[in-house]
């Protein structure tokens, strides 16, 4: 049996939802039948239904504990091509604090309660019991991976797992920083004018069109994501209308096309920098 498949079945037996990852730590893209969400699936929701596609589609939302799906012929082909096993932390009631460099690890050791840890290529994963909102770049070198996200399986780790502390939950509700792709704070319009983007229908339509543009990209996905982020920020980035929910929709659309959270963050930051935001 393929080693990745064996690991996935073992995790699933422990009620940890799993999915295969391609090289570059990215999920398998949607199949032809599910492209552009034509299957009726809901990859932006907390559950993957109602799509019944037999392939590992919809990025993190494909994660499952069903051994019949994991060991099906279509998934076995994916496991043979896979570079790693990933899991949906939130689906297992877990939160991963992803520490990307030595400075982030030093901050965690000085700030966060000790818990189970796993070494990564560049840093560490700190694993807590309990689910929360996933957010990238909550501080330099620190991402939160829980609901609506995936994390690479790096082994059982060491140490005793601790309940998710308030200090970790608080990381996603603090004000934005230069490294965090959240709502953009700008001064009010001169003269107290009303920003037309604050009309919900106008802004929602713009975000929906941006999601469609990313989803429709058939090649050069990196470039398509960057251009779309740039267009959204050009239209809505200086009036303070964009919220965390809007940005999360764009990031989710990009990740469903196979972009990693880090690539999304870099594209967003580069777009902001180009526009002087």
Structure explained in plain terms:
- There is one protein chain.
- The strands form 2 sheets. Strands 4, 5, 6, 7, 8 and 10 form a 6-stranded mixed β-sheet that branches. Strands 2-1-3-9 form a 4-stranded antiparallel β-sheet.
- It is globular.
- Mean pLDDT is about 80; it is low at about 45-50 and about 175-195.
- Helices cover about 35% and strands about 15% of the residues.
- With about 280 residues, it is an alpha+beta fold.
Helix content: 25-40%
State the low-pLDDT regions, or none. 43-49, 174-194
Series of secondary-structure elements, N-terminal to C-terminal: HEEHHEEHEEEEEEHHHHH
Mean pLDDT: 82
What key phrases describe this protein's structure?
277 residues; alpha+beta; 6-stranded mixed sheet; 4-stranded antiparallel sheet; 10 strands
Question: Can you lay out the helices and strands and say which pair or pack?
Answer:
Layout: H1 3-13, E1 18-22, E2 26-27, H2 67-70, H3 73-81, E3 84-87, E4 94-99, H4 102-111, E5 116-119, E6 124-129, E7 135-139, E8 142-145, E9 151-152, E10 162-163, H5 166-169, H6 200-216, H7 221-236, H8 244-256, H9 261-275
Parallel strand pairs: 6-10
Antiparallel strand pairs: 1-2, 1-3, 3-9, 4-6, 4-8, 5-6, 7-8
Report a brief summary of the structure.
This protein is an alpha+beta fold and 277 residues long.
